[in-house]
Amino acid sequence: MLDTVAAGNVQVLGTLTRTSTADTGNRPRAEQLDAMLRNGVVRGFAFVGGGARIAEELMRQISALVADMGVYAVRHLGDLVQIFGTVLGDPFVVLAQDLLDATLDAVEAVIGVCWVRIRGYVPEMLKSIMSCYGTVCGGGEKGEAEVVYRLKKITCWKWQFNGRT
Fold it and tell me: Is the pLDDT of residue 7 over 80?
């Protein structure tokens, strides 16, 4: 129930932000989304503990907020990479398939938007992805082929963006 309420609150705030400032280049809108990501989602991970369903919903909110924020999301890259590392590095992440899928969606969204600055975080991200890869391949869980494909795709993106100047 708590995860439903939290998800609803973030969605309502996102809708209010979109309707309050319709102009996409409006700085106050970017500041509102920035506060939502920092104070709502990133801070929320400090209190998740073992709540996989809550963490899954927070990951989904990361994807949505990063897409809405665009380049302004770059300032949160360090926090997001740390969150991704925590989730992907968990040896039991394969038991929460929905959380793993939401995390990979969020990683893809962040790379797609923040590719300009991702270069400084490649080692941490590769460590997390390889840890997840080892966990998934060692576990023999269902959905293994899809997860491995997505991890490989993310890794290829990282190397592609790492070569850009």
Answer: no
